[in-house]
Design brief:
This protein is α/β, with parallel strands linked by helices. It has 9 helices and 8 strands. The protein is globular.
Amino acid sequence: MVKGRLHSFETFGAVDGPGIRTVVFLQGCPARCSYCHNPDTWDMHGGNEVETKQIVDRAKRGMSYYGDKGGVTFSGGEPLLQGEFLIQTIGALKKVGINSIIDTSGTFIDEFTEKVIEECEMILLDVKHSNPEKFWEITSKKQDTLLELIDLINKHEKHVWVRQVIVPGINDTEANIDALNEFIKKIKHVDKVELLGYHNLGVEKYEKLGIKYRLKDVEPMDRAKLDELSALVKY
């Protein structure tokens, strides 16, 4: 039995996939996104060791609320860093009738990734930027991995919710939305596209961890402008 590294749980999640969900935040992330509000999830050796049975037992508590659509969402950090643990845990959840969703930034792939994609119910895909150079600037990772992941998602006919954080001065333009609309044509089954407004609520975490926050002078995204941009999304 493979053990995982857990950052935290969230119960009654209503925004991390269809229905009511238990959200499992796994520890570790290879990216260093400029606007990340959970830098405490980066360290692969942080958090707490966890067994599959603990995840299943916690998820089972919410079964009466899941209905036909709800279940478990694995987020992070980057959950695909723990692919072997995911395969094991998704399988165990299936045995008790709970579906699993993967919330990924597409910044990591290894020999377990395809099996994870095959076994999960659907994908929440955080497209940091459609432009490769901007993707690198935001994440410090190459966009190639995201494209490889999309190929795997398409191969296994998985449905996707696309997300993108909109940051003032970085991607808050109509041109960016046009580029995003074009980019998501690469994905066969897009059920939903969400634009999420940048916020700076994680600044205190950076200070406590002694990490420089690169966007400290950027104001939170204006809600009215975000709504305007959201109206331009096509899929």
